[in-house]
Amino acid sequence: MSTTRKRLAEILQPYRIRDKASNYVDVFLISLIFLNVLDVIMESVSEFHSAYETQLLWFEVFSIAVFSVEYLLRIWTCVDLDAHDTRPHWRQRLAYFFSPMALIDLLAILPFFLSLFISIDLRFLRVLRILRIFKLTRYSTAMQLILNVFREEQNSFIAAFSMLLTLLIIAASGIYLIEHDVQPDEFGSIPQAMWWAMATLTTVGYGDVTPITNGGKFFGGLITIISMGMVALPTGILASGFNVQMHRREQKFNILLKDILRDGIVTDQEWSDLEVLRKELDLNAEEAEMLIQLSEAKKIQLQDCPHCGSILHPSRRSEDK
Amino acid sequence: MSTTRKRLAEILQPYRIRDKASNYVDVFLISLIFLNVLDVIMESVSEFHSAYETQLLWFEVFSIAVFSVEYLLRIWTCVDLDAHDTRPHWRQRLAYFFSPMALIDLLAILPFFLSLFISIDLRFLRVLRILRIFKLTRYSTAMQLILNVFREEQNSFIAAFSMLLTLLIIAASGIYLIEHDVQPDEFGSIPQAMWWAMATLTTVGYGDVTPITNGGKFFGGLITIISMGMVALPTGILASGFNVQMHRREQKFNILLKDILRDGIVTDQEWSDLEVLRKELDLNAEEAEMLIQLSEAKKIQLQDCPHCGSILHPSRRSEDK
Amino acid sequence: MSTTRKRLAEILQPYRIRDKASNYVDVFLISLIFLNVLDVIMESVSEFHSAYETQLLWFEVFSIAVFSVEYLLRIWTCVDLDAHDTRPHWRQRLAYFFSPMALIDLLAILPFFLSLFISIDLRFLRVLRILRIFKLTRYSTAMQLILNVFREEQNSFIAAFSMLLTLLIIAASGIYLIEHDVQPDEFGSIPQAMWWAMATLTTVGYGDVTPITNGGKFFGGLITIISMGMVALPTGILASGFNVQMHRREQKFNILLKDILRDGIVTDQEWSDLEVLRKELDLNAEEAEMLIQLSEAKKIQLQDCPHCGSILHPSRRSEDK
Amino acid sequence: MSTTRKRLAEILQPYRIRDKASNYVDVFLISLIFLNVLDVIMESVSEFHSAYETQLLWFEVFSIAVFSVEYLLRIWTCVDLDAHDTRPHWRQRLAYFFSPMALIDLLAILPFFLSLFISIDLRFLRVLRILRIFKLTRYSTAMQLILNVFREEQNSFIAAFSMLLTLLIIAASGIYLIEHDVQPDEFGSIPQAMWWAMATLTTVGYGDVTPITNGGKFFGGLITIISMGMVALPTGILASGFNVQMHRREQKFNILLKDILRDGIVTDQEWSDLEVLRKELDLNAEEAEMLIQLSEAKKIQLQDCPHCGSILHPSRRSEDK
What is the mean pLDDT of chain C? Predict the structure, then answer.
């Protein structure tokens, strides 16, 4: 029983390089996700929908069946994911149940079952199935890096968002005061004026609603200029966030490197550890080599004794004694 | 008297972790600020306004009363904020009165009292109450970081703004010369043409006013391309500003770290100092650990004596003598 | 034969500084590329096309002839490009044939010959000739740097693109659900709603199609705000990518520098090697000088002996013994 | 004669801190420039122009007179700007004549004199007077920093611009092929389609011209997504450029710092040199202090002798001998 569960957990996990079963399951699930997204999109085209109604329904049922089985298996096998986790099984399963990935999985299948029990039409909820795309993040380190940056900089993003919100309210209030007498249909209330404020402060600028009085154009121009700063804010935060991540990956590599170089002997095991870390950190080979060269250079320089003039190669230290 | 004032100053200050009274006051004031912003927005919706006129008035009076008392208490207790400030009390209060935060607080309550004494309708000034939102910056280190970046890079922003202004004038003058004969209503004067110039140079691009002659489209296209550089300017400044802040926080941490590691013994007190600084700088725990590891590695490497080959651990130094 | 081929290979390669023949060929080919692009653009202007029909045809024939000869010569001589390549000639030529540059060259001439053999009108394929512009990247290190950044960060770009795609689908689905009853012509299906979603999420914001219901405007406003993050993503990735490239160039320079300074004697040969590397890396002269100064400073500091207090200049080391 | 010229050169130069005459001249000239810009803008408003015609003319004549005298004096005194310049005076004046600043000065006054001699109306050239604003860059280090970044990264900007140009041509050609049959008025030729391409690739997005066919919308959507990359390019270049500048300023400071700390004694003169450099580099005081602390820490660490355990303070070194 426990062995079957363990094997299933392995198969459901991505990235098992030489595990054929796991790879087949991965490819199958990804394809099914993509086909489902395509299905949701195409179903909205009425000609297509009426032409293939039966086929679409069967595909729907098949997908939900597969995803439901997958979901249940993941809940069941999640206790084998972390061997060091000593909590009771039900607590591990509960924790997994509330993890974002599992919730997305649930949201992808729930609307179908809800539509069986509730008479009101919840068909539009099926669009949430698109969130299955996020399952793919399991397969991409670059996407995880981006999500990491968003997560680490979330305080800054929240702060930037509240500044945007403040400015939105000020912009909407200002344009409402100036324009609501002249254009009562477009700027009749602050919530209504918000549509213009959002289009302007994000530099989208639809132009379906614009101020027409001189005062409104002057105020609108001011908001237009402030919008440059607003757009710059998330970009600046992200750019800095990416820099920090890159820097940190180099530092991690450097720490291991220093550790390895300390005893003066670089064993084959240590070299392969370094290579594994390099790949894990998604560090460019050229980058890594340069870090090694710079580090080695420093090391040898430090061992270049100013008193005897000899260069102490790490491996020669024992002979010196 | 002075003890009451001191206690009140403590309560009104945010961030007193184990001070229940202070926390309740904080939550109450923040909620009231948010409700007031909501009030200003909803009052502009005429159906809502006429339906709840009396309630809104009473909420208005209540809010102003609370904020007025808060404002007066802050002015009174501000002399206890900095124990090292030896200036006479009236000068400290005057300085606090003209601080940006105190001015925003004043602007939030003043329009109400003005409307009591002056007969002309200053109701629109009530929208300034929205600025109370900025009080919240007291509660967010991330927002203070963003404001810091804006403040430190203000020279660059002013320079970027004057370049934008120059380009605005050139763009408006150019399009005026080319288009004012064909579209006298839209480009009748340079100030009028400024509306198009602002929408274009900030890449908002409403499209309510666009050049129609070939010459105008050619010139407009040029401005369009220049706009990419204009939008890039504040973003580049901000991105670099965030990098500098991050770098500086790491350096601050490194300075304390070096100081601590110098004598070779890291006491428990020093470790907790480090942790306090880390939280103050909003440094990621992982980040901090890496800085420590890198620093320690360097330290030990330096103590790796080239003469005897032994590694001198900091704590063993006294034995060596 | 082989000597002629070698000489031709040299002539066709860019950047042979003192090779007059090569330079003339370069200038001629670049001019012809530019004239061809201009030709494609001007041919679309019907007055111009009818006025100069014969001339344009002859120019067309002449250009194709030149580019065909150039293409064949490049295929023939490509085996001399890399003297260390020991693969048989046909394999080298095959590899060159499928290189992006060679494919662009082929795409630029193929449509003309196809139009001779196939009766259907493939004239519109001539527009692909514009891709000849990319040949110019051979002449610009700055453009190669930009392409490098794009290539190295391609994983991040793919990840950012899939996030954009996900959001596009969610935005289009959402607005379709909300607006397709009210505006069946604009938001009649998800693929149709995609046009609005793309214009909004990229902050282009044409405004030809906009939501008109309150719900649609609320959802549209949300998407509008998310668009700021979407636009920030590629910018942040690129900004960080450029930083990494700059940092790496400095590191490369530092590695050579350390190597040179290690033995304490900087020969004239080493100085000129350094200068060659500096130009290759497109490093500012000021930048390079600072790197040297910083490096030297460090070196001398290390040689400042704490035991005797004397400063050991590299060249004096041998005398000390 | 030469003394008068020298004094005049001093007066015309900005930034002479304790030179009252120079400061008065600066303020006067800056005010006049601003008033002239305002004059050009206001003259375009027809009501204003007709109301103050005479006054505007006299102001015009007065300004041109002042700027002409200033221009001639600058040409005359420029030989005193650089005492080390040994070229003959006429060559120095010629070089100054062709410097960008001098050309802008000339362009600002030339149109007026031209209108006296040539009968055709060159009044529109007066708008060039706005370029006088760029004179102000003499007074702002932040603006000079920005211009520096633009100058140093100009190769990257040119490369980015040629990529934009290539994409513009491809986008315009593509949309022309797809849409010119359906919308012959908007997309009748590639140059005409360029207007849409420019508005789209720069994310301005006027929306006055948009594709209406399904194919056109698909292609337009692709261009829309590519536009995000195009907008990211100059921003990324600028962000990296600002980082480099900041880094370089720190390095410059570090070089002087290391030089000063080398001999172990920091004289008062050296401290004030450091302060002068800090201000010149526009380095934050906090930043500078941290650089000093980090540098000192390193220095002392190096002098912390591992054999005797004593910390060798720089000033105690002589006693040790």
Answer: 78
Residue C22 identity: S
CB–CB contact D203 A206 (8 Å): no
- Give the one of B205, B235, B236 whose C-beta lies nearest to C205's C-beta: B205
Tell me the pTM: 0.82
Q: How far is B43 from chain A (nearest CA, A)?
A: 8
Q: Are C247 and A285 in contact (CB under 8 A)?
A: no
Residue C234's pLDDT is 92
Query: Does the distance separating the beta carbons of A199 and C262 come in below 8 Å?
Result: no
* B13 or A113: which leads in pLDDT: A113
Identify the domain containing residue A11 by its residue range: 2-139
Q: Which residue of D has its CA nearest to A243?
A: D240
CA distance D289 to D303: 21
Q: Chain D partners of C231 at a C-beta cutoff of 8 Å? A: 203, 228, 231-232
B95 lies in the same domain as B29: yes
Question: Are B12 and B52 contained in the same domain?
Answer: yes
Mark which of A230, A265, A285 sits at the end of a domain. Answer: A230
Structure confidence by residue, pLDDT tens digits, B158-199 = 889 888 988 898 899 889 988 988 999 889 898 999 999 999
Q: Are C59 and C77 in contact (CB under 8 A)?
A: no
Verify that D118 and D63 share a domain, yes or no.
Answer: yes
Q: How many domains does chain A have?
A: 3
Low-confidence winner among C15-19, D9-13, D304-308 (lowest mean pLDDT)? D304-308
C positions 206-245 inside 8 Å of D (CB): 206-208, 230-231, 234-235, 237-239, 241-243
Q: Report the Cα–Cα distance between both ends of chain D, in Å, rounded.
A: 61
Q: Does residue B94 lie within any of the structural domains?
A: yes
Q: Which helix (H) or strand (E) holds C122?
A: none
D148 touches chain C (CB under 8 A): no
Residues C196 and C186: their CA atoms lie apart, in Å, by 9
Predicted ipTM of the assembly? 0.79
Q: Is residue B224 part of a domain?
A: yes
One domain, residues A127 and A57: yes
**CATH at residue D38:** 1.20.120.350
Q: Which residues of C touch B203 (CB under 8 A)?
A: 203
Residue in C203, C205, C235 closest to B235 by CB: C235
Q: Who's near B79: CB < 8 A, 6+ residues apart?
A: B5, B85, B89, B92, B93
Question: Quick one: B131 and B216 in the same domain?
Answer: no
